[in-house]
Design brief:
Layout: H1 13-23, H2 41-44, H3 50-55, H4 59-66, H5 76-104, H6 130-142
């Protein structure tokens, strides 16, 4: 859809970062690359309220959060597929990176970092609070006691 051209956020930086770390041999082939799963509703509900997640079914709300006004007039099933699903994949990547850092000693997620989002609201192109979700998942799975 070309929505990335409507926001100053560089949505193509992840590809360039991956290319750079590959060219500089910072990773040794695709065996070091782990593809995340999309963060699911159960994971998202660790931090986000059901009301907030339901509000993402309104394209106008996603337009406000992403700061891309034309998103408001796009049918939500398209917004979900083109805007929200990639953000859920990046959120899943942050959660996975946290787990892998505990298990392997280090890990990075070249997407994510949605620090403008809280449990009840998004903004600044951040629809999901991936950092908080990662911390909560680690706390529940590794540091429960």
């Amino acid at each position: 859809l070309g929505l990335q051209k409507l926001h100053p956020f560089d949505s193509e930086k992840w590809g360039r970062v991956f290319e750079m770390i590959t060219e500089k041999n910072m990773i040794t082939g695709l065996k070091d690359v782990v593809t995340p799963q999309e963060a699911n509703e159960k994971e998202l509900l660790r931090i986000h309220s059901k009301e907030y997640l339901d509000s993402l079914s309104w394209s106008s709300n996603v337009a406000r959060i992403t700061e891309i006004p034309p998103v408001a007039i796009i049918p939500n099933f398209i917004v979900n597929r083109v805007v929200l699903k990639p953000l859920r994949l990046q959120t899943g990547g942050t959660i996975l990176a946290g787990r892998l850092a505990i298990e392997r000693g280090w890990s990075i997620n070249i997407g994510g970092g949605f620090h403008h989002c809280s449990g009840e609201d998004g903004g600044g192109f951040c629809a999901y609070a991936d950092i908080s979700l990662c911390a909560k998942a680690l706390q529940e799975n590794y540091f429960a006691n």
